[in-house]
Write a structure and sequence with these properties.
51% of the residues lie in helices and 7% in strands. It has helices at residues 3-9, 26-38, 43-50, 60-73, 93-109, 114-123, 126-135, 161-166; strands spanning 76-81, 84-89. The protein has a two-stranded antiparallel sheet with strand order 1-2. Strand 1 and strand 2 (84-89) form a beta hairpin.
Amino acid sequence: MNASLLRFASMSPLPNPRPRQLSLGPLETEILEILWDLGSATVKDIHDRLLSDPDRELAYASVTTVLRRLADKGWLTCDRQDRAFRWQPLTSCAEAHMLQAHAQLHRFLAIGNPDVIAAFVDDLDRASLDQVEAIAPTPQQNPNRTQTEPRHTSRPNQTTALQRRCGL
């Protein structure tokens, strides 16, 4: 089993609290990645990091607006320290990936067409089935697990920016 799968298999249930809105724009994702790297940062820290590319132009006020939007979505918290505000992520990179995978699975299952779901399952190769079993053993493989306990899913084939960032 590969390292990212082992990390996924050992993860706890979905984080709580969760962001109210999972969708992120490109600049929101970039700023969130900076905060994951730094742990916490001021608007100036983030603005300076974004402008480390000499060809890039971005207003300080735009960074502040995006940070407020991320806080409104439930991704960040802000604390005042002295005269500056420090922004900090409320979820880790791995938790964000888990939440997005969970949401994608629910969107897929919401289709509600058994033929579509059956076609998907029929199309899984042996390696994919092994990964699913490693993450979510069937009740026969894990008699202590009840039918209603949540199962974790493997990541989708299409990698997102968060997946690449987290190494998953």
